[in-house]
TrEMBL record:
GO terms for biological process: mRNA pseudouridine synthesis; tRNA modification. The keyword Signal does not apply. Its EC number is 5.4.99.25. Keywords: Isomerase, tRNA processing. Pfam families: TruB_C_2, TruB_N. Transmembrane segments: none annotated. Residues 187-229 form the tRNA pseudouridylate synthase B C-terminal domain. Residues 39-186 form the Pseudouridine synthase II N-terminal domain. SUPFAM superfamilies: Pseudouridine synthase. GO terms for molecular function: RNA binding; tRNA pseudouridine(55) synthase activity. This is tRNA pseudouridine(55) synthase. NCBIfam families: TruB.
Length: 306
């Protein structure tokens, strides 16, 4: 019996709770990956944090059981991508999965031409999401309206790009490596670079290499997850809150948290006002997420995992 199977057998009597760092294959939607895990984990709830389109591969954080309550926190982490683009094309989806049109007779673009443009895509930038995106327009997803043939006016919005570098150039193709905040559309960055060059550009491949603490080097292939070993791949919920301030509970504190009651701090602790604090019991098990209330000097549970 393998180590993963032994670990699965040991915790099988407990309700499953944790995060699967899955390397999503090309051709599947994020929802299809969740459905596959759901069949293994039922009746536990399953959800993902951060959608990847079918053409994309890489890190997909899938939360199981009470860990689904951590989805918003994982979604807010930075994300890293490797994205490939080709110049001289335009698409209604900003990638090769849509209706692609060729741009005739465009001049040859040099590597330096693209590199000169990259600084304006770093930092907090204004970005218009693609027509085929999950943005809500009048109560509907933009992609639903686009599929009906409607040209929708999607307002631009602020997104943050922490890092952006070109790692490969072989005209007319180029590759970008980036680290960005939640809500950033990678294909839109390639599109906008192409428009500044007046020749267009579409994304041909996308790999998410990291979302917060979850990286592709430690991701498990979806086909390697089975009914016998899947629980052994679960990462503890604490991995999702590793950047939050923390507080370790006494046994008496744990009883307060279980019943949703606040934990009174015996000494003044300098958490930021209204900060979300991760509460831990023994063995670094995540017990709850709480809001710090400085005036009362207490931690009020908001999400309980016990």
């Amino acid at each position: 019996m393998s180590r993963l199977e032994e670990e699965s057998k040991r915790v099988k009597k407990q309700p499953p709770c944790g995060i699967l760092n899955i390397h999503k294959p090309k051709g599947l939607t994020s929802r299809q990956v969740v459905n596959r895990i759901q069949r293994l984990a039922k009746p536990a709830k399953v959800g993902h944090a951060g959608t990847l389109d079918p053409m994309a591969t890489g890190v997909l954080a899938v939360c199981v059981g009470r860990a689904t309550r951590l989805v918003p926190y994982i979604q807010n982490y930075h994300k890293k991508y490797n994205a490939q683009f080709v110049l001289g094309k335009r698409s209604n989806t900003d990638d090769i999965t849509g209706d692609v049109t060729e741009v005739p007779d465009f001049p040859e673009i040099r590597q330096s031409d693209i590199e000169k443009l990259l600084p304006q895509f770093r930092g907090i930038i204004q970005q218009t999401p693609p027509q085929f995106s999950a943005i809500h327009i009048d109560g509907k997803r933009a992609y639903q309206l686009a599929r009906q043939g409607e040209q929708v006016d999607i307002p631009s919005r602020d997104v943050e790009v922490h890092e952006l570098e070109m790692t490969q150039f072989d005209f007319p193709e180029f590759t970008l490596e980036m680290k960005c905040g939640s809500g950033t559309y990678v294909r839109s960055i390639g599109r906008d670079i192409g428009e500044l060059l007046t020749c267009g550009a579409v994304m041909t491949d996308l790999v998410r290499t990291e979302i917060g603490p979850y990286n592709i080097a430690n991701a498990v292939l979806l086909d390697d997850i089975t009914e016998e070993n899947w629980i052994g791949f679960l990462l503890p919920p604490s991995t999702a809150v590793c950047t939050l301030p923390s507080y370790h509970l006494t046994n008496a504190d744990c009883q307060q948290v279980i019943h949703g009651r606040p934990v009174l701090l015996k000494e003044k602790i300098t958490f930021p006002p209204k900060a979300t604090v991760a509460l831990f019991k023994e063995e670094n098990q995540l017990a709850a997420l709480a809001e710090y209330k400085p005036q009362e000097n207490l931690l009020a549970p908001r999400v309980v995992f016990l």
